[in-house]
Amino acid sequence: MTDQSPRQTRYSRTVGILKVVLPLVALVMLSLVFLTARTIDPRLAIRTAEIDVEDRARDPRLSGARFAGVTDDGAALTIVAETARFDPHAALKLDVTGLTLHLEGRSGEDLSATASEGVIDRGAGRFSMSGGLDLSVTPGFALHTETLTGLLDSTRIEAPGQITGSAPAGEITAQHMLLQADSTDGAGYRLVFGGGVRLLYQPEN
Degrees (nearest 5) of the Cα angle 85, 86, 88? Predict the structure, then answer.
């Protein structure tokens, strides 16, 4: 076997040294990464998150809940809520906040209402709204009341307490109000005020 030249000897020695040195350098760099890495505090992530994860875990709820259906007389009923919580004692019952109701009849009749809170009970086929409730009804009613109740499968919406606001002919006050289908064939709707109704007539209207 021939002897290696000095150049080949230096090359072989350099390769041998690099085989030892390079793994050691990589090991040192990897150790520095772990030693200098910042510890992550999971509580900090919860504090800066837009959604309170701990609160959602304790109190599960839906955001942007929407219920839409058609009543038996052909009116389109839509209820939208900012948040909805399931009732632990009733699977089809929801406690909702920030809700908006819209009812559109087959002939163009329209009722819209907003409230701070309410309940949608699909098992009983009913809903209720309360807390600073404002509603508008065609033609030209802008009303305020504290509570509104209704059915999900037929057009029947009732304000059981005092109701005030403006009507096409002036200012109106009543002890209760009822909106319901005039007949099951969707021919029209009746808006009835009752209980000491007072209308302040304004001729310019």
Answer: 130
